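LAB NOTEBOOK - FOLDING QUEUE
OPERATOR: T.R.
BATCH SIZE: 2
PURPOSE: Compare the predicted structure-token outputs for two unrelated chains run back to back under identical settings.
PRIORITY: normal
REVIEWER: second-year student, initials M.K.

ITEM 1
FIELD SEQUENCE / FIELD STRUCTURE:
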Amino acid sequence: MEKAAHWIALVTLVGVPPGVFLWVIVHPFARFWRRVGAGRTYLAVGSIVALGMVGMYHVRDPLMRISFGVRWPLVCLAVPLFLASLVVAALRWRLLTPRIMVGVPELSQKQGPGRLLTAGIYARIRNPRYVEIGLALAAIALFCNYLATYALAVLYVPAIYLVVLLEERELRQRFGEEYERYCREVPRFVPRLTRRAGRPS
């Protein structure tokens, strides 16, 4: 169990920070990257993310120095969080395809703003993928019980809030009043359990 916790913590610490950085520099600044072109954008951003992952791997020893060991009460708390993350992921996957997740619509040079997702889980919460990852990070932190995974889970909150604010600015530019109305009806992070009449789910 300790070995599994070590490897899960390592993969999380190496992969998540560069992944968040990817969201920060691609989705909110889609206009700039659209002018650059999708191919050059993915080459530039992919190279930066890869370098970030290599850098995180090289500082893994100091990052993972403090381990509190696997504790079964914490594992029991981690399980429902991870299951909740899987439920959100399953609902999100129906609408948010990998193509959309990596920003292809934002980088497309075709005319028009594209399609605003408002059905399914998006009728109840505006940012399910970020909630999904936040739940998974909390579960991983509890399961692995490393100081660094707790720090990552905590730092994820302000980092992803910044990402959301930047994305919202870009979405307002793309969709205008349609997005403003959607924001008034659907919360950012805490799901609305009841369904508004007239809006698909």
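ITEM 2
FIELD SEQUENCE / FIELD STRUCTURE:
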Amino acid sequence: MNRHQPLAIAIAMTLLSTTAEAQRARARDLGVKPGVFQPGKLNAITDVAGVRVGQTTIIEGDSIRTGVTAILPHGGNLFQDRVPAALHVGNGFGKITGVTQLRELGELETPILLTCTLCVWRTADAMVGYLLEQPGMQSVRSINPVVAETNDGTLNNIRARAVKRSG
């Protein structure tokens, strides 16, 4: 995806489920055993029934290497069929929207999007715009998007803020 295509395409792409095993070593392969439960067949978030993950990459010239990853807990309308959710912060430097609703209400009403540090707000705005355009959302007056950052500043010119809703 390049900056001239709508971010809504990236969100729509999340309807594709991850089905192939990763080619790189997994944490468990390296001796790190997170959690207490046995991993699923693919050792992936998509082992959880109904969870879908989509990703799009933005590559421009020699300095833009970023993208957006979307996690959907189920295939329906999350705003109308919210899911229980919680949040744990591993460091105090992360940029994230939607924290208050997660902490106070314990529910998720949008997909979870991950993007570059300085693209969080643009990505949240694009997701809200996309969701408001969906059927059944005509009377919605408030959405609490959950968008978090991953600092790709060593790979990407994050100051370019390459994630855009449209060109």
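REVIEWER COMMENT (ITEM 2): The longest helix spans residues 120-132.
FOLLOW-UP: none requested
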